[in-house]
Specification:
single chain, 146 residues, alpha+beta, three-stranded antiparallel sheet, Rpr2/Snm1/Rpp21, zinc, metal-binding, Ribonuclease P/MRP subunit p21, metal ion binding
Length: 146
């Protein structure tokens, strides 16, 4: 129980630091502190939060204010390219409505695992004997040479 409370408090702190203050330098400091805390406590941040923070200068990426967003096509795929106006670092994100992030998939959730017991071993069916053929009894071969 104590671990859950600690993580909850850490996530609350990260949420507070993620808020959007008016001062961009203060926002950059908050975002850098948020990223440092998440790394130190080994916490997984939501992808939507990670995509709005610059990996280079820790700026909060707000389209039209602190970054530019462009739609690009490359080899039949659509991409969103986000460029930070502070450090000029760019990030690409795939624009595929069918794409699911790993965290959103059912098999990624710990609660979705229904049976924690390992599966029972199946009988060896590598070379089954067909039902229409009688089983042959194997006679031991004699070691005498004639």
């Amino acid at each position: 129980m104590a671990g859950q409370v600690k993580d909850r408090e850490a996530f609350q702190r990260l949420s507070f630091l993620y808020q959007d203050p008016e001062n961009q330098a203060l926002a950059r400091f908050y975002c850098h502190t948020e990223r440092t805390i998440a790394k130190r406590l080994v916490l997984r941040r939501d992808p939507s939060v990670k995509r709005t923070l610059c990996r280079g200068c820790s700026s909060l990426l707000i389209p039209g204010l602190t970054c530019t967003q462009r739609q690009r096509r490359c080899k039949g795929q659509r991409w969103t390219v986000q460029t930070c106006l502070t450090c000029q670092r760019s990030q690409r994100f795939l624009n595929d409505p069918r794409h699911l992030l790993w965290g959103d998939r059912p098999e990624a959730q710990l609660g979705s695992q229904t049976d924690p017991t390992p599966p029972q071993p199946q009988p060896n069916t590598a070379n089954p004997i067909p039902a229409h053929l009688p089983e042959e009894k194997v006679q031991p071969q004699s070691s005498s040479h004639q």
